[in-house]
């Protein structure tokens, strides 16, 4: 069965189908994340694509167009499924705004990359049921995850980079109201092609939801209980975190993560005046002797 499809639309105005990818090329020290979201009942397609560069600058683009088809394309960004639940083609070609670092301005950017998945697809329903499922209804009740390897070419102006890095992909569908959570924490880390971690902690007015997996010995082991202590920076974003994740086998996995650099994406509520900030940092993770890299994403409602 192919889960990598656009599903039958629900009736809620905020019904959404989302496809997300990230990867970190350690050799070039480039971290990228990108997303395409379909909201057919709002006649809306939205997308973003960002690159966090070695000089601490960020190249970023956000796009929007009316919903006219289920094609995974918005202006400069396109995702193409090559092999269901196994391989995707990621492409971007356009102008990106540059901020931070030594120069502010804009650059012509093109990306041509293949993302190959390295584990069996993981369904969050292996972690979440009952009241937790009801709590998560406002923030995409159906949620699939895989880690993988991205290889390809990136052009920024006249500079060319050959990319090769590990990362994560996320596919979710259902109601997605960015202003509904008080906070969510989404952590992904790849230690190697055979060892990875995925964590979600969702804090809603009605309670909390813990989910995710640790990939060990070729198997996705569901996580059932997650404790996170976060140290915050002066701008209200994460600086460091300590994590204990208990899996379904009863094993507790202890990790520490330090934020290397980040960017922030704002999300405003449509009618109620709420504003949430999506902190999207690249982080270095330590789990015993293992060292890995990935995202330490925090969505924080600030008003």
Question: What's the helix-strand series?
Answer: EEEEEEEEEHEEEEEEEEEE
Low-confidence runs: 131-136
Overall outline = globular
CATH topology term: AttH-like fold
| Approximate helicity band | under 10%
Content of β-strand: over 45%
How would you characterize the overall build of this protein?
The chain has 303 residues and is mainly β. It has one domain (15-301): AttH-like domain (AttH-like fold). It contains one helix and 19 strands. The strands form two sheets. An eight-stranded antiparallel barrel has the order 1-2-3-4-7-8-10-11.
Question: Secondary-structure map with pairings?
Answer:
Layout: E1 15-25, E2 30-39, E3 44-52, E4 58-65, E5 73-74, E6 77-83, E7 87-99, E8 105-117, E9 122-123, H1 130-135, E10 142-156, E11 159-175, E12 183-192, E13 195-204, E14 207-216, E15 219-232, E16 238-247, E17 252-268, E18 275-287, E19 290-301
Antiparallel strand pairs: 1-2, 1-11, 2-3, 3-4, 4-7, 5-6, 6-7, 7-8, 8-10, 9-10, 10-11, 12-13, 12-19, 13-14, 14-15, 15-16, 16-17, 17-18, 18-19
Features:
303 residues, mainly beta, AttH-like fold, eight-stranded antiparallel beta barrel, globular
How would you summarize this macromolecular structure in one to three sentences?
By secondary structure, the chain is an all-beta fold.
